[in-house]
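Thread amino acids onto this structure.
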């Protein structure tokens, strides 16, 4: 079996989930998020683009409803013993198969939690699910149960993230020699992803962000490449990935001359990141972290050039995004606690002067100050 953790690790995770199920007085939960299935059982697939569900009963028993294409995938990558298939056919409605499965599991009339907030359950399938369950039992939204359990990392998970962070550093090391006048974004991107693969890493849950010139002000991947000019700016956001665990980094690298505006924005970004580090400690909240970022950039007269979030939790994630909850935004009451892996990014985009500056890295929270997981310093990189 292609398991990346000891069986005792999965048993401990199941026990944590059982406590939550009992506290919420649920008889079962229906998990649709691939992250939840991977965390709980090791099940590793991109087949969640189709209808599938992991049923977890209050007694800890689990059964997976999926398609034939994922039968062997589930057997090989997970601890799931019971697997039921729904059949692809014209007019198929797997929500009916799920309802029948729940009936076979003696859950008629039971209180059932559903993990609605996930890309693994489209609105179309969610509506079909509700149609089948509305008279079957008492349905409750259980979207946040497993995602919050995943927020707190075990020692084994931390080891995965630390490996991912090393791969992220390797990717930057591979990119830097190529960032120069005439440097090709395509070759830079290939070198970064290649370094991660060569180091034993995986595909990221979303595309790396790469953009130069005016495109350096974008915060998302887009198709199309260009070559760098003599005096240019290149924004990179990427993640090292190991066994689906992510450690993200973000930098704007300059070629040639450093403009006055670039230096101003970098000084502000660095000051904001250091301010965030001081607050990323137990006793503070995710909202407090955002406020530290916002206050610093306001002091540099950059409020209109910043974003309304400055980072988020990281862990084992699947397409379409490596971003995990909770996020650093205004008013978020989630407390900072030890053993979280958090990505803080300072993103300043001055559209008036077409100047970009970013700075970000992943941290492991502790009982006191957070531990940066990158070996790279926070100096401005000029090639």
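Threaded sequence (383 positions):
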């Amino acid at each position: 079996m292609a398991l990346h953790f000891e069986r005792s690790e999965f048993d401990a995770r199941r026990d944590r989930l059982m406590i939550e199920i009992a506290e919420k007085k649920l008889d079962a939960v229906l998990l649709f998020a691939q992250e939840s299935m991977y965390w709980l059982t090791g099940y590793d697939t991109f087949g969640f683009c189709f209808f599938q569900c992991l049923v977890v009963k209050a007694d800890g028993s689990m059964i997976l409803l999926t398609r034939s294409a994922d039968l062997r995938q589930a057997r090989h990558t997970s601890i799931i013993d019971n697997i039921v298939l729904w059949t692809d056919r014209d007019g198929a409605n797997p929500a009916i198969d799920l309802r029948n499965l729940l009936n076979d599991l003696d859950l008629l009339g039971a209180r059932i939690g559903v993990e609605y907030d996930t890309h693994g359950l489209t609105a179309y399938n969610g509506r079909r699910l509700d149609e089948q369950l509305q008279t079957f039992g008492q349905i409750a939204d259980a979207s946040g149960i497993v995602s919050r359990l995943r927020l707190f990392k075990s020692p084994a998970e931390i080891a995965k993230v630390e490996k991912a962070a090393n791969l992220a550093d390797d990717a930057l090391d591979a990119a830097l020699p190529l960032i120069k006048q005439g440097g090709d974004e395509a070759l830079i991107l290939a070198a970064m992803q290649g370094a991660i693969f060569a180091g034993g890493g995986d595909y990221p849950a979303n595309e790396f962000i790469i953009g130069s010139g005016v495109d350096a002000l974008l915060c998302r991947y887009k198709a199309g490449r260009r070559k760098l000019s003599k005096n240019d700016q290149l924004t990179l956001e990427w993640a090292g990935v190991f066994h689906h665990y992510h450690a993200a980094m973000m930098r704007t690298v300059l070629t040639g001359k450093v403009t006055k505006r670039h230096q101003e924005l970098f000084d502000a970004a660095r000051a904001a990141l250091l301010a965030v580090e001081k607050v990323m400690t137990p006793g503070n909240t995710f909202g407090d972290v955002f406020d530290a970022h916002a206050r610093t950039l306001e002091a540099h007269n950059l409020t209109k050039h910043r974003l309304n979030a400055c980072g988020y939790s990281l862990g084992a994630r699947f397409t379409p995004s490596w971003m995990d909850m909770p996020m650093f935004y205004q008013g978020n009451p989630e407390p900072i606690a030890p053993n979280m892996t958090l990505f803080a990014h300072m993103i300043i985009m001055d559209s008036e002067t077409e100047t970009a500056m970013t700075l970000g890295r992943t941290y492991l929270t502790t009982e006191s100050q957070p531990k940066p997981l990158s070996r790279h310093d926070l100096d401005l990189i000029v090639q």
